[in-house]
C-alpha cells in the first residue's frame, strides 16, 4: 500500500537516495562484489510512467474510469478500482501478443486451430483504492477478445510489471537476502528446486503473480482477509480466478481464461481468504520467503502482526525456514522530520498513522529472527524491512568493515546474480543500498 499523499515525501526520499548512494558506492564499485553489470530489458513499470496512473492527490483524477466499486465489511471502507490508458506496449507490438494468444489457444483446442482469432483491445493501468484516497495497489492489465463463436472478453494482469517502487524494493531486498544465506535461488527459478513463498496481504496481486512467473519451482500462498479485495483483483485487475480458495465468484470472464492466459503460472498460486493470524496457526508449510503488506482502509498496520509477544510473531518464527528463512515487510516511513517540530510531526502523523511505530516493528522482527535491516523506498514514504536468520549472512571475514558495511556488501554481491537468474527488468542494487540501515 502507498498513501495518496506520499508524493509529499518525494524530496526527502530523493535526499536519502543521494546520500546513501555516495556511502555505498565504494562497496558497489568492486567487480568482485557485483560482477559485470547488465542492461535490464525495458521496464514497463518504470516510475517514469507514474503520471499515467497516479491521478489526483485525493482521488482517481480526470479521465479515470471506475471499473469496480464495492463496500468492504473488513475495515477497508469503499474498495474501488480506476482504469487509466497505458502507453506501453505501443500498438505496433500488439500483433506479436495476439499471435501468442492464438498459439496458446491452438494447443488447448487443436480442432479450432485457424478458426479462433484474438484481438487486443488495449492495455490499462488499474489502481485499487480504499476509502476514495489511499492507493492500495497498481497493476497493468491487457484486455483482449476471441472473435469466433461467442465472443469472449479476457482480462490479464501483466505479471512482469511492478509499477510501484516499494514492491520493487521488497523484491530486491528479499530475493538478494536468500542467496546470502546459502539458498540456491537459480535452482528455484529453473524449477529444479521447490520454493515456498507466503504473501500476507493481496491487493491487486501483482507481487505473487510476479513471483510465480519468475520461479518455476514456486508454491505461492496468499492470505487476504477481505473478500471484496479479492473480488476486485479478479474482476478488475486480471488476477487468475482459479487460484482463489473458498470464493464464489460471479466473474463474467470465460471459464477457460486462466488455462489460456497463464500457461500453468496460476497453478503455483493459492489465495486463501482468512485472517493472517488464524492462517499461520493452522498452516503446515515451512516458508523460504514471506512478504507482509497488510494495511487497512485507515492505513494502519495491525498491531497483532508486529506484537513481539503475540501469537502471530511466535508462530511466524516457527513457520520460516530455520537456516535461510527471510521475512520482508512494507512499512510507512516516519523519518526526515525533526522530533522538536511539533506542528510538522502532527501533520506527518496525519499522513502516516504508523510513523511512530516503525522502530518498534523493526525491533520486534529483529528479536524473532536475529538480523534486520531497512532500505528506504525512492520517491515514496515507504520503508522495506527485512528480517532473516543472522548466522549465515553475518558469517565470514569482515576485512575491517563494520557489521553494517559487511552485510550490505554481501547483499550487493548477490544483486547481479538475482537479476540474471530471474531476468528482472529493473536493477536490484539501487533499491537495496538506498538508505540501508541495520536495525540495532
From TrEMBL:
One of its GO terms (biological process) is methylation. Keywords: Methyltransferase, Transferase. InterPro entries: Lys/N-term_MeTrsfase_sf, SAM-dependent_MTases_sf. GO terms for molecular function: methyltransferase activity. Belongs to the methyltransferase superfamily. This is PABS domain-containing protein. It comes from Setaria viridis (Green bristlegrass). The lineage of its organism: Eukaryota, Viridiplantae, Streptophyta, Embryophyta, Tracheophyta.
